Task: structure prediction
Amino acid sequence: MLLKICKMAAFEVFISENARQEFKVLSSTLQERIKKKLGLVCENPLHYFERLKGRSEYKLRVGDYRIIAEINLSGKRIEVGKIGHRSKIYKELN
Result:
């Protein structure tokens, strides 16, 4: 089940159940930073996200943490699949 945010923006952001669980264990300060950053990407995600080399997913930097997402430009949809520390998140993708 995906949680939808950014309802009135150009792009809709959906957060997977897995990413939601990863988000819940983060500090409240970091959670607020991530929420703020995801609010910004709703208008122009390609300005903030960077494509992962050799993959279809994109990454978004929030300090030492990364948000991994699929971006569907034609459907105006961003699906967040993972949230984690940069030292571990790329290992989990493989």
Notes: The domain at 3-93 is CATH 3.30.2310.20 (YaeB-like fold).
